[in-house]
């Protein structure tokens, strides 16, 4: 079995590392937040106090961080991954980050003599817990094949999306589509209730009808309807609105560089911006329902 270094033990990193431990690996885990490290230690992660300790002796290092700026810090600062890992160690960044940061990490890692793969994921906390995430991998054939051999206990699907930053490209497009579907779900959930439908009855109808979608089944924004929804838990994330705001912003900005106008993505971005402006970006993304019915998110 292998030694795995892990940086970033938040909503996703915590259950992902649990599956690596279950598969028999030693996982040395670090997070800036001590409570995140102790929560991961409860499922068998070896708690360490720095990135240098997390990467020491690792066959592979994974990072699972919020945004590009966090990933750049974790890799490029003097106390970060590149300055402290052995160049034999394969590096995989599973955070969803902007193209510029992803390309910078590929090139800085290569300059320092490392192999690097961008490997963002889809499937949410439920997929992370179940070990059924979809991984979208960008890098060389050899590096991606090696990364897959470690990723397997966390994944339902693994795709080699293409060369450097191709995993990020696939992920950003996926999340743009997810956010647009979710906007439909939050609008539908409020309208169904206003029409007098029982939320559970409507959910049962829509999940086997043409209105079905992943956010409908997984994130239904009305409490007591589906077990996996953050609405059951006062919209505690889950997937924070701040992170979806970042992802849709990346999609809209990327579209602009291609001369594309994406009206639905822009609309959802404005809806997410509203949550940010109201200080609600720490809530789950399904709190978008609050823009339609302010009482919905408490
Ligand atoms: P999170 O905010 O819950 O966790 C991120 C963790 O990184 C935090 O615990 C934070 O303290 C830690 N961190 C930040 N900078 C650090 C540093 N320099 N060193 C060590 N730790 C550091 O976020 P999350 O929900 O786990 O998401 C992580 C990434 O995965 C994001 O890019 C997100 O867009 C993506 N993602 C999230 C979901 C989801 O449903 N939550 C699904 C798919 C992809």
UniProtKB/TrEMBL annotation:
<comment type="similarity">
    <text>Belongs to the HIBADH-related family.</text>
</comment>
<dbReference type="GO" id="GO:0051287">
    <property type="term" value="F:NAD binding"/>
</dbReference>
<dbReference type="InterPro" id="IPR011548">
    <property type="entry name" value="HIBADH"/>
</dbReference>
<dbReference type="GO" id="GO:0009083">
    <property type="term" value="P:branched-chain amino acid catabolic process"/>
</dbReference>
<dbReference type="InterPro" id="IPR036291">
    <property type="entry name" value="NAD(P)-bd_dom_sf"/>
</dbReference>
<keyword id="KW-0560">Oxidoreductase</keyword>
<dbReference type="InterPro" id="IPR006115">
    <property type="entry name" value="6PGDH_NADP-bd"/>
</dbReference>
<dbReference type="Pfam" id="PF14833">
    <property type="entry name" value="NAD_binding_11"/>
</dbReference>
<dbReference type="InterPro" id="IPR015815">
    <property type="entry name" value="HIBADH-related"/>
</dbReference>
<comment type="pathway">
    <text>Amino-acid degradation.</text>
</comment>
<feature type="domain" description="6-phosphogluconate dehydrogenase NADP-binding">
    <location>
        <begin position="3"/>
        <end position="162"/>
    </location>
</feature>
<dbReference type="InterPro" id="IPR013328">
    <property type="entry name" value="6PGD_dom2"/>
</dbReference>
<dbReference type="InterPro" id="IPR029154">
    <property type="entry name" value="HIBADH-like_NADP-bd"/>
</dbReference>
<dbReference type="GO" id="GO:0050661">
    <property type="term" value="F:NADP binding"/>
</dbReference>
<dbReference type="Pfam" id="PF03446">
    <property type="entry name" value="NAD_binding_2"/>
</dbReference>
<protein>
    <submittedName>
        <fullName>3-hydroxyisobutyrate dehydrogenase</fullName>
        <ecNumber>1.1.1.31</ecNumber>
    </submittedName>
</protein>
<keyword id="KW-0520">NAD</keyword>
<dbReference type="GO" id="GO:0008442">
    <property type="term" value="F:3-hydroxyisobutyrate dehydrogenase activity"/>
</dbReference>
<feature type="domain" description="3-hydroxyisobutyrate dehydrogenase-like NAD-binding">
    <location>
        <begin position="166"/>
        <end position="290"/>
    </location>
</feature>
<dbReference type="InterPro" id="IPR008927">
    <property type="entry name" value="6-PGluconate_DH-like_C_sf"/>
</dbReference>
<keyword id="KW-0101">Branched-chain amino acid catabolism</keyword>
<feature type="active site">
    <location>
        <position position="171"/>
    </location>
</feature>
């Amino acid at each position: 079995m292998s030694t795995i270094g892990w940086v970033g033990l938040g909503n996703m990193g915590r259950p992902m590392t649990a599956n690596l431990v279950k598969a028999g690996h030693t996982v040395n885990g670090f997070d800036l937040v001590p409570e995140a490290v102790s929560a991961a230690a409860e499922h068998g992660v070896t708690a360490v106090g720095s990135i240098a300790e997390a990467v020491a002796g690792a066959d592979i290092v994974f990072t699972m961080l919020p945004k590009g700026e966090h990933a750049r810090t974790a890799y490029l600062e003097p106390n970060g991954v590149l300055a402290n890992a052995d160049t034999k160690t394969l590096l995989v960044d599973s955070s969803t980050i902007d193209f510029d940061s992803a390309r910078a990490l590929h090139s800085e890692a290569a300059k320092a003599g490392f192999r690097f793969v961008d490997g963002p994921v889809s499937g949410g906390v439920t997929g992370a817990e179940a070990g059924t995430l979809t991984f979208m991998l960008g890098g060389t054939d050899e590096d991606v094949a090696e990364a897959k051999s470690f990723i397997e206990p966390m994944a339902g699907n693994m795709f080699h999306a293409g060369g450097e930053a191709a995993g990020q490209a696939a992920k950003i497009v996926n999340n743009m589509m997810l956010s647009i579907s979710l906007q439909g779900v939050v609008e539908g959930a409020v309208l169904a209730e206003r029409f007098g439908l029982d939320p559970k009855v409507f959910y049962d109808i829509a999940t086997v009808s043409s209105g079905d979608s992943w956010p409908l089944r997984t994130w239904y924004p009305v409490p007591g309807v589906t077990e996996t929804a953050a609405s059951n838990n006062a919209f505690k994330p889950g997937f924070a609105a701040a992170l979806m705001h970042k992802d849709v912003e990346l999609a809209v900005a990327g579209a602009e560089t291609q001369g594309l106008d994406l009206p639905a993505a822009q609309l959802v971005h404005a809806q997410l911006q509203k949550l940010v402006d109201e200080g609600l970006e720490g809530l789950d993304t399904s709190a978008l329902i609050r823009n339609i019915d302010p009482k919905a998110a408490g």
